[in-house]
Amino acid sequence: MSKTEWTKKIIIIVIGSIIAAYGITLALYAGFGGATLAVLWQGISRTFHISIGLVSMIVAIVMIVFVFFYDRSQIHIGTILYQIVYSLCVDLFANAHVYSSYLWVNVLIMLLGIVLFAVGTGFYAAASLGRGSYEALTFSLAEKNGWQVKVVRMILDIVMVAAGIFLGGKFGACTIVTIIVSGPIIQATAAKTKKVFKM
């Protein structure tokens, strides 16, 4: 891969990470629960009184270390770069948005956040320089054991949400909507990005 290709992919990863972080922050703080993994972040954050961004980094490191020893083919420079930028930006954006006293406005903010999160994730995924920590965990378990990816992801989502709720995280509309709409948006964005940037 040429230097130009590397540069282009790194820029795409950084931009995608920033968009995804802003989106998940909007959705998370709108007051309707969090995306599946974000429910766990909330729970850990409330239990141990540390920031959401730091929690996301810690959880990602645990997953990446597991995958490194279990199936390191899932990990590349994009895995690490995405997580660093993403976690830093989550904390940066956490207090950068003012929410409304009107419920319907916050619903719109939540929906916008979910869409931005999915678009940013799809943008990053198009670079094909390693999976995100949660995706790497999902695919490593599925591919190493011959299990279906969707089944593994469903089980992991249930475990993450259950653990998050147990620790004080909030399950809500955001959790459900994210599960329903994020997949198709991520897939469509990744495909479009690859086509536009010829990757």
Main pleated-sheet profile: none
Number of helices: 8
Structure class: mainly alpha
Distance between the ends: 11 Å
| Relative helix content | over 70%
H and E order: HHHHHHHH
Low-confidence stretches: none
Q: Whole-number radius of gyration?
A: 16 Å
Q: Proportion of β residues? A: under 5%
Shape verdict? globular
Please provide a written account of the structure.
- With 199 residues, this protein is mainly α.
- The chain has eight helices and no strands.
- α1 runs antiparallel to α5 (103-125) and α3 packs parallel to α6.
- The termini are close together.
- The model has no long low-confidence stretch (mean pLDDT 90).
Core attributes:
199 residues, 79% helix, mainly alpha
Q: TL;DR of this structure?
A:
The chain has 199 residues and is mostly helical.
Topology (elements, then pairings):
Layout (H helix, E strand, L loop, with lengths): L2 H27 L6 H13 L3 H20 L5 H18 L8 H23 L7 H13 L3 H19 L5 H24 L3
